[in-house]
# Entry
Amino acid sequence: MTQAVRPIPSDPAAEEAARGPCGLRHVGIIMDGNGRWAVKRGLPRVFGHRAGVDALRGVVRHFCDLGIPYLTIYSFSSENWSRPAGEVSELLGLLKRFIRHDLADLHARNVRVRVIGERASLSDDLVSLLEEAEAKTARNTGLTFVVAFNYGARQEIVAAARAMAEAVYTGRMTPDEITEEALARHLTTSGIPDPDLIIRTSGEQRLSNFLMWQAAYAEFVFTPVLWPDFDRAALDAALLEYGGRKRRFGGL
Ligand code: IPE
Ligand code: IPE
Ligand code: MG
# Structure
């Protein structure tokens, strides 16, 4: 069966200008608190991760309605491999199930999926699944849904530095071409606007190696709500808090 192909956006300026409420272009979410949500209910931690996937589904749908062009979710950090093997394998399984189960729905909602993070150490079947999600939705023009999986900002910056060092070593780049723009182009987020707002659930107030370069001027909203309880109302409250912020970018 042939699939109707949506046109590639022909007007980069229009895409550049697209913004959601409060001028938001990109929101990053550190989805935290799944384990505590489960423990509070006397359940094994994996139940929290499963409930977290349901919360994610609701949030993505709300983003589609809001018209904010970019959403990045922190789904698994480079450091999360240090968790017990059973929990790691549950988290990998959940990502696979999420893509298999939700890809058609995301595609139907005109969502473009992009995955950032290190892929070399992931299993072949997982890598093919991530590639399939990106390829199938590459021409979509709605929400860009960025999944940070096996992602770590320090690792990402080191990889960018190494790539530029190699380019200089082989004569494809000069040292004075190493600029902020060049470094940003070598990050896995190349082409994605910097996040305006980063939300972290569960009351923790840290980045945990998420988008450190990109978040230089992001606003932060920390909410005590545990991720599986993060619903539309909680998201709207975070956006309202962002709406009251004054961003100065070092100016007056
Ligand atoms: C977030 O929930 C999910 C991941 C980090 C993968 P946690 O599993 O960190 O939950 P808490 O912080 O232990 O409650
Ligand atoms: C950050 O949460 C990573 C993700 C949400 C995927 P963690 O729960 O791993 O962070 P720390 O260990 O509390 O800093
Ligand atoms: Mg946590």
Q: What stands out?
A: The domain at 19-152+194-241 is CATH 3.40.1180.10 (Undecaprenyl pyrophosphate synthetase). The two ends are 57 Å apart (CA to CA). The pocket of magnesium ion (ligand 3) is lined by residues 32 (CB under 6 Å). Confidence is low (pLDDT under 50) at residues 1-9.
